[in-house]
Structure prediction request, 450 residues.
Amino acid sequence: MSKASVLIVDDEPDLLELVSLTLSRMNLATHTAADLGSAQRLLRTEPFDLCLTDMRLPDGDGLDLVAWIQENRPQVPVAVITAHGNVESAVRALKLGAFDFVSKPLDLGVLRKLVGSAIKLGTRGDGGAAASGPRLIGRSQVMHQLREMIARVSRSQAPVHIYGESGTGKELVARLIHESGARSEGPFVAVNCGAIPTELMESELFGHKRGSFTGAVADKKGLVQSAEGGTLFLDEVADLPLHMQVKLLRVVQEKTVRPVGEAREETVDIRILSATHKNLAQLVAEGRFREDLFYRINVIEMRVPSLRERSEDIPELAEAILARLCQRMRIQPPTISPEALQALVAYPFPGNVRELENVLERALTLCSGGVITAENIKLRAVARPLPEAPRPVALDTTSGGGLGNQLEDIERAAIVKALEQTRYNKTAAAKLLGMTFRALRYRIKKLGIE
Ligand SMILES: Nc1ncnc2c1ncn2[C@@H]1O[C@H](COP(=O)(O)OP(=O)(O)OP(=O)(O)O)[C@@H](O)[C@H]1O
Ligand SMILES: [Mg+2]
Prediction:
């Protein structure tokens, strides 16, 4: 077995040396970085079992690195070295996801213990409910299928579209695809397409040249380019305005981008993953999402099941979520009373796993005596049965040829819908779908619609 490896980030050479020496004597491999930028570079390319960072760095602070690691290398535990008595920054670091902190002047005994437990945390790895890395929890059949599918798609470079209700774990699935694939050493760049103002979108995504518009005071790299060598995750892709969809199509199709104000195109090497909780096929039918882009990004599609389709996973999820919350708060996780658990399992969770997290976080503050009771679990009243999952097609992960069928199902649904909307006027339906009359006629025939 190779040595566990630790990244130490500090701009003071003396401290770097002291910590390096201490850790080497613990039979650990050490790497050092003197600033945020080089730490990120190392984290991108090397696997680490722990990162130890000072708070004040020449190009940012330790908190930035903690946040960056949560985003990009969540499996790496990170601890911060804080100035003596600076409790506030230690707390902020913990809230941001640091697993611990140690204050200056360094007590080497304390440091050794912290490092020892961090390393153990890492190797305990899978199986333990307390593992903090991003894992897909759940033993239901649908979760097994999802895991298999992730393993399968991570071996390819094809665009994957992930859909499912809010809070089901779409982003988690995207991260896992990235982490298990050949690009795992490269960056994972998540872009929330619904959160960027329309007028800034092009420059945010593709970058801009200095002076290309008022306020463009320097060259800026786009999010697309910053995913070079890695994965670009387009979250809430349905919210992309139409004019951006055209530009994105070029990225997907030609693997090129043109920054705002730049004459030439640049090539990019990225894999595109996307997600939405909306029904893209329907948006295509309504002319609000480009069909050509839809077919490009939807090469493989995965549905993340709602929590009520897998309510047998709720106990295990609840335990893991509590363990994670309590680890962060550094308290012992409470147990859940049988009645409380029953209430959780029976509840339909319109907000899915995210709602379960919120419910438990609240219960944790309300409970006393180390037990979460049914009274601590405050569930929203859900009046009527919830609508079905957003799309009519189920993910078929069992048969290898399932993808083609799913595409056809979506296509069929979109065409039927457009035909119904236009009272079976094929010319109008074709227009609605953004395809030619001939193409529509051909597809109707091929899909056996009538
Ligand atoms: N199977 C799972 N195992 C463990 N944690 C999960 C699982 N599914 C979801 N989560 C957790 O639930 C939360 C919501 O997940 P995520 O953000 O990936 O959902 P989403 O589908 O992208 O939601 P939205 O549509 O609201 O953006 C996250 O904290 C995630 O870690
Ligand atoms: Mg999301």
The chain has a mean pLDDT of 84. The longest helix spans residues 402-421. The first strand starts at residue 5 and ends at 9.
